[in-house]
């Protein structure tokens, strides 16, 4: 009897020990690389997106957001996701035009100048983007535009001739080409370094959105904003396909659903932010002005030149894209 009692006790301890060694359900953890500050509406949308994934999976799928280029700089994020150093990241298409011209379609000035036109261009562009990302071992989760791009300067500008020789911040091949066509000096500066570049005199002018103008406090160094509404470049959240395929079905569904909601929310936010940020620029003493007829005409010519150049480089895919957009 004593022996049986001892054996039962030992068995109980062994079972307890064995159960203690069984791990709890593993939590999935991803890193999301982003280039813009926490205050930016794209980053705020990403924060809501990660919270939605966390909530939908009961905390089983955690995505850590690394904002303000703290994990990878903006031009490095696409390669990092493709190579698996980050499972997910946010890019701006225009940064990668030299790799594949279709990435630069929404950076062509005066091609799509309203949110409605930007949406139409995106619908024409999306099948090509999905195919390219699939070839590169990635998938696009969602895309959101920036507000329309305008011109920031230290001095009044009446025509393109007034931009000759000015130090112009470029963040993409398209913005560098605009500088060349108006006779400015392009200087490549990413968003995270923009404020410092202005403070040290590295740049004196740029074309970007009201949102970036507020994020980077351009009103502290630049005094004029010309509301050209030149183009609406888009950001995209991309995912490493192997990492996605490795998720449970439930986590995949949660990610896709949160991405769809983030795209809808982001497009609405971009329109709201456009109105709010221009008001903020004015409140800080910046002159927010319409372009003069001459400046508008000069920049329209720049757009015509650049679209022709882009079509020559983009080939049949580029022509098909523009034809679909203009239907």
UniProtKB/TrEMBL annotation:
Could you name the domain of life of the organism this protein comes from?
Bacteria
What InterPro entries does this protein's entry cite? Answer: DctP_fam (IPR018389), TRAP_DctP_sf (IPR038404)
What start and end residues bound the annotated signal peptide? 1-26
Please name the Gene3D superfamilies in this protein's record.
Bacterial extracellular solute-binding protein, family 7 (3.40.190.170)
Which keywords accompany this UniProt record? Signal
GO process terms (BP): transmembrane transport
Instruction: Show the PANTHER family listed in the entry.
Output: PTHR33376, SIALIC ACID-BINDING PERIPLASMIC PROTEIN SIAP
Question: What name does this protein carry?
Answer: C4-dicarboxylate ABC transporter substrate-binding protein
